[in-house]
């Protein structure tokens, strides 16, 4: 509760935005609050503080929640700014923390403009890294053609990577709805009470290829009855996200400025899944749990009633400015090596085109299903990462139902590996003996790799008239 003795705050830009949103002039607001128009102008220019009494008057007059009006004092903007200013490009600029805080509090509009500009810069940097001349099939982009319009998946992946796969507004909105993990029963009750929806379970032959379908005419949410608990919980949460977090999801999609309808729809689906995970594993609770359990993915999955993949995916999203945890990357592949999910929050140089390195355990764990395999990785430039891989199953649930086996690998940079339970007491592979891998054969210049499938670009192949190399391709040293 705010009292008259509470600390006064400066919130000029926020007050100006409120007035404009309400369609009022300074004179109109002055009349409503029974103060003078010049005093409103002083408040908006931060030349006078907004007292607790004035906050209460604003809340009563315009029927606004006091917490929303007071805001967080710029804490969110401050944290986001501090996170961005850690980038190497700002390393030579001495920016005191107090100055960052003053900017975020006093000029939230300018702060938001800077953050949007930085996000746009990150997206362009990622786009530049992916830009190519003719592709492997020889098809070149036409002048002025947008490659992303032809590859909506790549566009959405870059959208997520530019934001480090974290959407704080969705996390906040989810925590307002669910403070603690609710489970299926809690979600079903909310759907019934808040949306007058009855949840029904139907067999696959009735669902006709759907696992979830909303029937607004009959006020029913229909779910396939072969879903396991984790799948059921996720579908319930996803439907709640579409119903109650539509505004936040749409705002995030609009921020992406996608070049095609397909990319926009894929982004919307990804953000709805993000929101569902945030409802099942609320950020604050989950972030505390990962530290307590030292990122033990199987233990976390048991605690939150989630699948291994859902848990691994959520771990990659814990990059909220000011509350960052270990940054992870994630990749999901099928036995043929096709990549169906790619999230990079740890700076791992994934190949933009073609397959990954066959020496990485993520391609070999189909031989040991459901077992976690850890591995230290070293790239040709000396970067080291720690990887955790395991198979996951989609589908099934009934005799004869199609099951799809995939492999998940989640990993982090070597400097963070000590925080993971998988490196405790020297368990697993030796960090001093990492597996030397490449990003992809075409860009890997390791000369003595027996697993190589193609020679590196730009290297001359040696003749084998008089000598056959022990590796698939012998090539010149320079």
From TrEMBL:
Keyword Nucleotide-binding in record: no
InterPro entries, alphabetized: Cro/C1-type_HTH, HTH_RamB, IrrE_HExxH, Lambda_DNA-bd_dom_sf, ScfR_C, TransReg_Diox_bact_type
Database matches in SMART domains: HTH_XRE
Keyword Transcription: yes
GO cellular component, one term: cytosol
UniProt GO molecular function: DNA binding; DNA-binding transcription factor activity
PROSITE patterns hit by this protein: HTH_CROC1 (PS50943)
Membrane-spanning segments: none
All residue ranges annotated as the HTH cro/C1-type domain in the record: 15-69
UniProtKB keywords: DNA-binding, Transcription, Transcription regulation
PANTHER family xrefs: HTH-TYPE TRANSCRIPTIONAL REGULATOR (PTHR46797), HTH-TYPE TRANSCRIPTIONAL REGULATOR SUTR (PTHR46797:SF23)
Record-stated family: Belongs to the short-chain fatty acyl-CoA assimilation regulator (ScfR) family.
Annotated protein name in UniProt: HTH cro/C1-type domain-containing protein
Source species: Bradyrhizobium macuxiense
């Amino acid at each position: 509760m705010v009292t008259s003795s509470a600390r006064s705050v400066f919130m000029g830009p926020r007050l100006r935005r409120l007035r404009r949103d309400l369609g009022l002039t300074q004179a109109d607001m002055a009349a409503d609050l029974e103060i003078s128009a010049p005093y409103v102008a002083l408040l908006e220019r931060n030349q006078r503080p907004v007292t607790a009494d004035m906050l209460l008057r604003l809340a009563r007059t315009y029927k606004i929640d006091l917490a929303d009006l007071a805001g967080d004092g710029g804490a969110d903007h401050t944290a986001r700014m501090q996170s961005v200013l850690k980038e190497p490009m700002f390393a030579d600029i001495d920016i005191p923390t107090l100055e960052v805080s003053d900017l975020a509090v006093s000029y939230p509009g300018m702060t938001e403009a800077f953050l949007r500009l930085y996000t746009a810069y990150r997206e362009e940097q990622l786009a530049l890294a992916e830009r190519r001349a003719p592709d492997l099939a020889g098809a070149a982009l036409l002048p002025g053609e947008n490659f992303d319009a032809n590859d909506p998946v790549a566009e959405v992946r870059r959208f997520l990577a530019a934001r480090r796969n974290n959407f704080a507004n969705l996390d906040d909105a989810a925590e307002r709805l669910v403070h603690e993990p609710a489970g299926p029963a809690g979600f079903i009750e909310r759907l019934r009470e808040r949306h007058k929806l009855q949840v029904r379970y139907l067999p696959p032959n009735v669902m006709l290829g759907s696992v979830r379908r909303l029937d607004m005419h009959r006020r029913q949410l229909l779910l396939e009855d072969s879903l396991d608990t984790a799948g059921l919980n996720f579908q319930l949460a996803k439907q709640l996200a579409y119903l109650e977090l539509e505004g936040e999801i749409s705002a995030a999609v609009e921020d992406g400025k996608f070049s095609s309808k397909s990319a926009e729809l894929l982004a919307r689906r990804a953000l709805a899944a993000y929101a569902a995970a945030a409802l099942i594993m609320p950020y604050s609770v989950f972030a505390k749990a990962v530290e307590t359990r030292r990122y033990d993915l199987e233990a976390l999955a048991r605690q939150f009633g989630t699948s291994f993949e859902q848990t691994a995916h959520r771990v990659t999203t814990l990059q909220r400015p000011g509350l960052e945890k270990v940054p992870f990357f994630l990749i999901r592949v099928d036995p043929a090596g096709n990549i169906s999910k790619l999230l990079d929050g740890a700076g791992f140089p994934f190949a933009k085109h073609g397959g990954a390195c066959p020496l990485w355990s993520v391609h070999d764990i189909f031989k040991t299903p459901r077992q976690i395999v850890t591995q230290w990785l070293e790239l040709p430039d000396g970067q080291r990462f720690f990887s955790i891989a395991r198979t996951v199953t989609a589908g099934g649930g009934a005799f004869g139902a199609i099951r799809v086996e995939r492999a998940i690998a989640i990993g982090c940079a070597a400097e963070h590996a000590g925080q993971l339970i998988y490196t405790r007491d020297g368990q697993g592979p030796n960090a001093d003996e990492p597996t030397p891998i490449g990003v992809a054969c075409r860009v890997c210049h390791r000369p003595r790799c027996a697993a190589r499938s193609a020679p590196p670009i730009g290297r001359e192949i040696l003749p084998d008239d008089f000598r056959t190399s022990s590796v698939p391709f012998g090539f010149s040293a320079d």
